[in-house]
Structure to design on (910 residues):
């Protein structure tokens, strides 16, 4: 069954790549309103393509910002399951533009990689699904399963309108399971199933001291220093064993099973020391760097500022100091509860003589985890292995994809994270690229996978 | 003897004030080369005035930056002692200019205060000495003591060239004692003798982690966070009892005697809570805010920065974090030794996985303290009391005046700090002013004082 479809993809490779290049040439940067017409153009590209393939109810759902492209295919028959395919057509800004070796919106192949903003994240991976749908329609006259397509234009700016729409139009997006290709493999050509993602929450702490910067000679010894107070607060939240010391932080976290430790150990990991350029790694006591990164919650100070930051010396007691903190959470941790625990802790340990403000970050997400032995996951792993000729590894990732948590929370549907990116893709950075290997074998994987669902 | 001189000052009050206003109208801002011609004009004003009064060897000593105005008066006779009078004619910048209620370089009297940049720090106080010298010459035909005048143009930018000149031209500046009016009284019309100043040293700590900002999802749990490491380092240097916990920091510090505690208690202090707008003061355990501020060493973080400081969230582990630290020192503490202790401490407590850089600040000074019962001090106190009609208080100050330490170190001469400023003068800030009360009674004090020296 798959042979014909794969043959079609092979025969039409140049034309399809040309078509993808057209899609990548549209600078659909979502954060800058100067690109609103490009956003519109990218949405129209998708709308036209979906219509051409033979999708029904193809439309651009208007939001407060950028349209969401929606489409349905219901001709696989009432017996066939329905998949919700999610992706996004917006891209990150390209600054600093002078660090690009070629125009980010003039796709160019060098050394087997397709260089362009969005080639990996996520226009390239979205296109692969559509090309596979086209191939099925052109060869078999139908898709093996029913499909709902949801491709948004605001992923890089927080997916706020998608969040509302998922809640408001529940039937529209309801399906038997979801497939998302917006992630990567742990190494090039290493089939990788993401079976867990971390949740996310954050706070910003501001310590307010004197109502203006004070002369350190006149007031040193009388006025509490807000930077020092903030340092004491931060130091009380995580110790140098990398253990979070906020009471209740680990409550409900399931212990890491021997089986999972083994799974994690088998993942071909990257050399953190080399990638980060650090003398040695630092992980939670009792866990390896890979275990902590993939499966244990983290607490990071993302930024800090206060007082004089220029050249030389300015002898002041500054009026305030601020730190930005985000945590990555694992199953069993509720983001809202963690936020409250952090806030309570800060208020409890704040020294006298200063006032402390805790701002809770709005965006938060629960961790996501699916059982690796779920049949939908197993089929994906088998398809991967068949296409790439290598055993699939199962990975929990330190990152967060909020839409995954939302879909799970609202619909309780299994979500299959089929990512084809590689660690060298330079997402969000200059010289983003995507290996054509991944492009070809990834589409082959999708052909096997969509075919396998109905079996 | 003093009557005639005081009468002269009174008869010529308007003219002298007009002359001071001319001096204050010159924007002699030393930090900005755009004002180089104004610096020159201010130096020329002083040169001309000193020549007109009758000083000898009046000259502008050229330096690598701004000239130092030098003059001598040797006609008081070989029996009379020689005083080195130090002051500075440069001023701080005026930014933010829109917070000034009147032009900083168009002096204006409002509610008994003379508003202008430099009116208190230090052009106004320098002028008072020159006006008193003029009054002596015009009425008595001579000064009561021999005088060396040293008025520099780089005090607000670190006095670097004066430092070199004091070392290179020792004879030029040598004298029996020094008088400096570049400080203030603890309250308006409260005669105040500064008998101690703190020393000064500083370091800058930079914690380097990964060689670029890392994604907190991918690397959180493997890479030590430099901000967190810096917080642990800082928190280990001073505890929340405001005790410095760097080993050896207090070695050699003389304990505060009961007598001195009594002296400090008697100083009419300001309300730190009110001035700073803080809920309560925070001082070293076992000491009052006034004791700590005036007579105990301090440790302040003046500034901190690292990672993301913009709006919202950026989920990174930053590549580095930096803190600027300065300490105010008391007698018994050597600035170089303290700097080394701080550096050793930082290196000792730095956690693994990061590298730490300690930059030692160049400018440093030892603390200065003179015995309050030194006869030169006693005469100053008596003159003060006679002019202001109030007992003089003896104060140790938290601030540092490096030139005081240099003069003491090089010449071992007693230094009399006769300040006439008030806490409301807003030095270095918009709306700097100087009370005309202080101006009149201050000159009266100087007349009594210079007359009393020869007795």
């Amino acid at each position: 069954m798959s042979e014909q479809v794969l043959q079609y993809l092979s025969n039409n490779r140049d034309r399809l790549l040309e078509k993808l290049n057209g899609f990548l040439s549209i600078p659909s940067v979502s954060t800058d309103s100067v690109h609103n017409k490009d956003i519109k153009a990218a949405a129209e590209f998708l709308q036209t393509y979906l219509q051409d393939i033979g999708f029904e109810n193809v439309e651009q759902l208007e939001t407060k910002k950028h349209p969401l492209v929606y489409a349905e295919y219901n001709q696989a028959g009432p017996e066939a399951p329905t998949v919700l395919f999610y992706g996004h057509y917006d891209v990150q800004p390209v600054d600093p533009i002078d660090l690009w070796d070629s125009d980010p919106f003039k796709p160019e192949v060098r050394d087997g990689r397709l260089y362009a903003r969005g080639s990996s994240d996520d226009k390239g991976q979205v296109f692969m699904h559509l090309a596979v749908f086209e191939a099925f329609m052109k060869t078999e006259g139908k898709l093996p399963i029913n499909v709902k397509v949801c491709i948004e234009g605001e992923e890089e700016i927080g997916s706020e309108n998608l969040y509302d729409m998922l809640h408001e139009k529940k039937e529209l997006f309801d399906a038997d399971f979801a497939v998302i290709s917006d992630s990567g493999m742990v190494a090039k050509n290493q089939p990788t199933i993401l079976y867990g993602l971390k949740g996310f929450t954050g706070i910003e702490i501001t310590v307010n001291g004197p109502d203006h910067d004070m002369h350190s000679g006149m007031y040193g010894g009388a006025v509490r220093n807000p930077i020092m107070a903030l340092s004491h607060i931060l130091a009380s939240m995580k110790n140098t064993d990398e253990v979070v010391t906020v009471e209740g932080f680990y409550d409900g976290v399931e212990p890491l099973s021997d089986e999972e430790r083994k799974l994690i150990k088998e993942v071909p990991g990257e050399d953190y020391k080399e990638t980060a350029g650090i003398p040695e790694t630092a992980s939670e006591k009792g866990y390896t760097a890979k275990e902590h990164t993939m499966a244990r919650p983290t607490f990071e100070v993302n930024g800090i500022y206060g007082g004089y930051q220029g050249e030389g010396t300015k002898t002041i007691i500054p009026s305030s100091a601020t730190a930005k903190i985000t945590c990555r959470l694992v199953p069993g941790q509720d983001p809202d509860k963690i936020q409250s625990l952090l806030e309570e802790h800060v208020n409890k340990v704040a020294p006298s003589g200063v006032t402390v403000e805790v701002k809770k970050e709005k965006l938060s997400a629960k961790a996501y985890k699916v059982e690796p032995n779920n049949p939908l996951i197993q089929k994906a792993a088998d398809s991967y292995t068949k296409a790439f000729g290598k055993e699939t590894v199962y990975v929990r990732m330190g990152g967060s994809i909020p839409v995954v948590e939302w879909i799970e929370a609202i619909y309780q549907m299994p979500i299959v994270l089929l990512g084809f990116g590689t660690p060298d893709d330079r997402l969000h950075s200059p010289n983003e690229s995507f290996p054509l290997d991944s492009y070809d074998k990834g589409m082959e994987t999708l052909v096997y996978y969509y075919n396998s669902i109905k079996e």
